[in-house]
Structures are given as structure tokens and as C-alpha cells.
Amino acid sequence: MRHMQQFLSDGGLYGLSPSKDNRHGQTRFQGGSANKLHSVAVFILLQLPGPLSFQHQNHRHHVHSEKRGYQGQNVPHKIPHPRISPRNAQAHRQKRAELRIVAGIEYVSPVKRSHRPSEVYLDWFESDENRADELKKRKNKEPEAISFFIKIRIGGLQMRDFIYYPGCSIKVGAKHYEESLLPVFKALGMKLDELDDWNCCGATAYFSVDELMAAAICGRNLSLAEQLEKNILAPCAGCFLTMKKSDTFLKSGHEKAKKILGNLKDNGCEYKGGIEVVHPLEALVKDIGLDKIKELVRTKLTGLKVACYYGCQVVRPYTDLDDPDYPVIMDQLMEAIGAEPVDYSAKTRCCGGSLGGTVNEVGTGLNYILLKEAKRKGADVIVTLCPLCQFNLELLQDKIVKKYKEDVRTPILYFTQLMGLALDIPKEDLGFNRSVISLEKMWAKLKNGGSNE
Question: What is the 3-state secondary structure (H, E, C) of 201-226?
């Protein structure tokens, strides 16, 4: 953001410069509007056509060099990334550059990644292709340990026990998520019972308002699940992230965490940290397994091109589910049911969240990029796992078409709805009637075996 200061008049990114005599007083800003300057910075940043060149004075290798241990000098150009091998570094750079483009600008399509089946893709949550070779080498040295590791990752071990935490959105505006999720898991042999007397997780914004209270109210849900000796299964991306944050914090041993745990115990909600917060994607691939899902598929969705949209909160900031930049776990799931996942480069780009209703211009712009990219890649539908993402992508389409004069209308479904179709669950029981965007073309294509005719 440092290089944006040149666009702001009479001040920096955080408002006008305070006077030297009164840096901390109530009247420290000498005229003007800090809020306006914030907006100017944000809007200009959103319009950047691409990343800064490596030679730019404000490229992060200059700005943050001291934090990486290079005092008084630039960081070398090729720093080994902890999750990216040299073999894939170029492909990742191209992906990241593509994510920063403004919709409508033509660019060279990056190298397409292959979505390997679980029996070959040993460590499914890593995108690094050298990882499988590394595991094979380790297997020769540590046969028992690595065999156990591989079985867990591809669903070859006994399934964990889960209790279903729906959250508020799924009970109100995203009922079709629950209507498809529960029958899918039942068809796969994992009946989900709802957590009794659950409370709101507080949503991700609550951590910015009252961090201790946010952790405490999630701690109550964690305690209720632990008393049943079951892990929490949270399908809503916001609930998943909030509960996982709270779980991590309460297990940290921090003094504030100890205080919250003490209060929970005094009120009959003791939490010992003996469970996990898991997303349905992880349970489907890690516990049930792609091989079993393939065996249970009754109607392959042949020819249906799907753009898998992950959003922000499931793969970031926690990266144990999949690669934060280019995850493939949902793509693998769509392949397992016979659909064709497209190379959707915007799969982890933000939909704007609440900006769709608060700063409409920004919200529509961000969603336009997502829809346009899916259209450009030939997707018939976009599947997602987040109620807010689904809401924005679906309900902003009329405004986007009107503003940008381009028909980017695309059905927005939950990944569980397509899974239900493949498992021969009646479509009337999967919430398709709640779709705002017409599904006529999708039904016709599935009827014709993948043909558009």
C-alpha cells in the first residue's frame, strides 16, 4: 500500500498528517476527511492491473527485507517458498498474476494443473506435485508411520465421529445447503445429527468487536460437542473459520484463553480441547474417501462443466485443508461424480462479503470478475461452499448485467447439490427450487449426456 500514498493529497493512507505539537490530541488532523482518503486508497488499489514489478521500489522484497533477515539489503529474487517447489514456482506466479487482473483484459492462460485421483495424489491437501515423490521416499524409511499417514489422507482408516453444527445462515437464507448436505452424507453412510442447543458462532466480524466474547460463545459449542465425544462438522465457511479460530485460541495456553476456559467450566461447559472443527469437504475426502464416493455414484454428471469457487475463509488463514492459492479438493470431488471441473483461476478470489450490501460498487465489481472468469472458461455452473458467497454471486447478477452490459448469468449451486444428483437423490429433495438463476440449460445438458444441443 505504500506506493498508493502518491495518489492521496496532503496526507498518507491513514488520514492527514497530525501536527507535531499535538500528535495524540482529539483535533490532531488538520482538516480534511480521513474516511474519504481511505476510500480513495481502496478504490485505486482495486483498479491495479497487476502485481508490482520486482524492480519497483515498493515491491515487498524491498519493503519487508529486514523482516526476512536481510538487514540493509534486498531479499534475493528466488526465495524458497515453504509450500511451492521450484518445479511449480513459475506456474504459481502465473496463477497469482492472473488473480490480480481486471476483468476483460486478455492474458496468456497459465499451465493447467491436473487433478489426480486419490490413489496417486497421496497427500491430497498439498498442491506441490513433488510432495507425492517425497512421501514415497519417506515410505521406504518409515514404512509404518507413512502408511498410517497415507491411509488417513485418502479415507482408508476408520471414520471419525461428527456432530452437525448448522449455524444461522443455513437455517434461514441457505436452506438448500442443508437440504442437500444431510441426504448426501446419509447416502454415503454417515448420518449427521444436529448439535442440540447450539448457539450462533458470532460470525467472523465478532472477533474484531470483542475477541474474548467471540471465543467464549464458540467455546460453548465446542464444549457441547466434546461432551458427546464428537468433532464439529461446520459447512458454513464463516462458522467453520470462527469456530476453528476459537478452538485454536482456546488450545493455545494463553492467559486469556485460560480465563475463558475457567468461566466455561464454572458454567457447566468445560472444554478440554479434545475435538476438531472440520469442514464437510475434509470429511468427504479424508474420512469417506474419493474411491468410496466413486463406487456409490449412480448417475455421472458427464459433460457438465463446473467452476469450483472456494472463497476466502475455508483455505485461509488455515492451510491444513488445501493449498491457499489454488486448492483442488472440491475439483477432485466434482471429478469423482463425473463432472468436469474447469481451470478456474479465480477460485479463491474474494466475493466482497458484506460489501455487496454496504459498498455496492465494490461488491458488484468483485462478483463481476468471478462470473466473467467462469463464463470465459466455459463453466455451465459455479459450485461453492459458502452461504454468503452463494448469496452474492447469485443475487447480484441482475445488477452486474445492467451495469457492465454483459450477460454473465450463471447458476450458483452448492457442491452438495450436484453430489446429490450423482447419488440419485431426487432433485426435488436437494433444494434446486430455491435457485434464482434459471437451471434450464443445465438440466438440458445433463439430459443430453453433456451435449449443448
Answer: CCCCCHHHHCHHHHHHHHHHHHHHHH
CA quadruple 137, 141, 143, 147: dihedral positive or negative?
Answer: negative
Q: How far apart are CA 236 and CA 434, in angstroms?
A: 18
Torsional class of 153: left (φ above 0), alpha (ψ -120 to 50), beta (otherwise): alpha
To the question of domain 297-447 being in CATH 3.20.20.70, the answer is no
CA 291 remoteness from chain centre: 24
Cβ contact 234:242 at 8 Å: no
pLDDT tens per residue, range 215-255:
999 999 999 999 999 999 999 999 999 999 999 999 999 99
DSSP state of 154: T
Q: What order of strands is seen across the sheet that includes strand 277-278?
A: 162-164, 231-233, 277-278
In 10 A of CB 213, how many CB atoms? 13
Complete DSSP assignment for 291-344: HHHHHH-SS--TT-EEEE---STTTSS--SSS-SSS--HHHHHHHHTT-EE---
For 300-311, the pLDDT digits (tens) are 999 999 999 999
How far the first Cα of the chain sits from its last, in Å, is 49
Domain ranges of the chain: 162-280, 297-447
pTM above 0.85, yes or no: no
> What is the 3-state composition of the chain as percent helix, strand, coil, each rounded to the nearest 5?
45, 5, 45
- Residue 388 to residue 279: CA distance in whole angstroms: 16
Classify domain 162-280 at the CATH class level: mainly alpha
Which among 386, 411, 415 is positioned nearest to 184, based on CA atoms? 415
Cell 455451465 appears where?
Answer: 380
The dihedral built from the CA positions of residue 136, 337, 237 and 285, taken in this order, carries a sign that is: negative
Bridge partner list, 11: 16
Which residues are 340's β-sheet partners? Answer: 305
State how far the alpha carbon of 308 is from the alpha carbons of 75, 181, 332, in Å: 35, 17, 10
